[in-house]
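Q: Convert this sequence to C-alpha cells.
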Amino acid sequence: MKKFLKVFALCALCVFALPAICSAQNKSSVITATKDDVYDMIRSLDKDCTIELVGEINENTITEIRKALDVLAKKNPGMGINLDMSKTTELKRIPENSFCRCHETLKGITIPSSVEIIENYAFAWCTSPAMNLTALEIRL
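A:
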C-alpha cells in the first residue's frame, strides 16, 4: 500500500508540475509590438529580449524607440534588446543619428526591406560588443 501511495503521489506530481515546467521552458524572449505600444514595452522591460516590431512604422516610430532605449539605459544599465523590424512596412529612411550612442542598450537590429536610405551616423558609437546589424535588403 505504501508503494502504491508513493507511485500515486509521484504521478500526481508529474501531472501537476509538468505543465508548469513546460510553460517555463517555452517562455519566449521575443516580444511583439506595434508602433503604438513599442515605447511603453521597451521602457518596461526587466530582462534582455528581442522586440519584434510589426505593422506600419515611420520615422516617428524610430524616434519613439530611441527615447525608450534612453529610458531603459538609465533604468537598467547594461540591459539591452535586439530590435527586429523585418515585419514592418512603410519605413523608407533611417534618419541621421537615429540610434547614435545607444551604448549597450541596442544589441542588434534587423532593418526592414522597405528602407532605402540609412543616413549618416545612424548607428554611430553603438558600443555593444554583440552589435549585429542585419539588413534584409538595402536598395541604394
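The beta strands are 30-33, 49-56, 81-89, 93-94, 106-111, 117-118, 132-135.
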